[in-house]
Amino acid sequence: MPYIDPHIHMVSRTTDDYQRMALAGCVAVTEPAFWAGYDRSSPQGFYDYFVQLTEVEPKRAAAHGIAHHAWVCINPKEAEDPGFAREVIQLLPEFLDKPNVLGVGEIGLNKNSKNEMAILEEQIAVAAEHDRLILVHTPHLEDKLKGTQLILDALKRDGRIRPERVLIDHVEEHTVGMVLDQGYWAGMTLYPDSKCTPQRAVDIVECYGDERLWINSAGDWGHSDPLSVPKCIAEMKARGHTQKLIDRITFANPKAFLSQSGRFSV
After folding, report:
1. Full set of structural domains in the chain with CATH
2. What angle do CA 63, 37, 70 make, to 5 degrees?
3. Residue 221 banded pLDDT, cuts 50, 70, 90
4. Distance between CA 136 and CA 129 in Å, rounded?
5. pTM higher than the cut 0.90
6. pLDDT of residue 76
7. Residue 127: enclosing H or E segment and its boundaries?
8. Region 85-97: what's the mean pLDDT?
9. Strand partners, 173
């Protein structure tokens, strides 16, 4: 069955992963800008990364019948130096005009610091000024609840932001409710041993329903699995969920959110 993986860092994956994903039914991916596995030393490093996202990866994906779309930003993990971060932010408008770029992301918080918050707010403003979608990274473990609330507060402070055009990713059991209650979309990231396992993600669907929820694999530099979405599909089938519900979580929902960009196609 066809599915969309709406948050996966394919720059960290081999071409064989594209092939395996295609065989499993993946028809489209979106790739947010994030950490490269090391801290970049210059804005030029980000410029080259954005070129990779907008020119190289779409060709790799297309060779396996997968549509590739991207997001651009400076990620929170590298946003502790505001001067450096602002130089990167100045690069964003050029790439926001690329035909496969959906918006600004994944922005957010890592350690909930004042510098991270300042850069988050400035990138929210960029998205508002260019009328682009936003994809948000929420912190890990014990910082997630506090960080998610700080992020929601920052989005609310910018009166131009419409919640239905923002995806708050990496939600877990203790944050998904607050995200959905305020009208945002929520993403569940499927990791083998952190964030949400496929089993926990299905538990959340069973508790909160299927409105404004999606699942993704992230598939980044750490311990991750680019086939997490089809494994979650298998878990839903094992629990007896309908094909309609599975399609909604894995295809219809991400398509509905991403199509608001006017640039997403399957």
Report:
1. 3-261 (3.20.20.140)
2. 40
3. confident
4. 17
5. yes
6. 96
7. helix 114-130
8. 98
9. none
Tokens of 69: 């779309």
**Going by C-beta distance under 8 Å and a sequence separation of 6 or more, which residues neighbour residue 258?**
4, 6, 30, 69, 102, 133, 264
Euclidean distance between CA atoms 233 and 231, whole angstroms? 5
Classify the phi-psi angles of 170: left when phi > 0, otherwise alpha if psi is within -120 to 50, otherwise beta.
left
Residue appearing with tokens 């309609």: 244
Cis ω before 121 (30° cut-off from 0): no
pLDDT digits 0-9 by tens, 27-68: 999 999 999 889 999 999 999 999 999 999 999 999 999 999
Residue holding tokens 């499993």? 24
pLDDT at residue number 26: 98
Separation in Å, CA 75 to CA 84, 192, 193: 12, 23, 23
Of residues 97, 160, 91, 88, the one with CA closest to residue 124 = 160
- Rounded to 5 degrees, φ, ψ at 67 are -80, 135
Average pLDDT over every residue of 133-160: 96
Segments of 179-231 assigned E as strands? 185-189, 213-216
Contact 255, 69 (CB under 8 A): no
CA-based max dimension of the chain: 52
Upper half-sphere CA count for residue 184 (Cβ side, 13 Å): 25
Q: Please give the structure tokens belonging to residue 60.
A: 């790799």
Six token digits for residue 38: 């090391």
Burial class (CB in 10 A: 0-12, 13-18, 19+), 194: middle
pLDDT at 191: 87
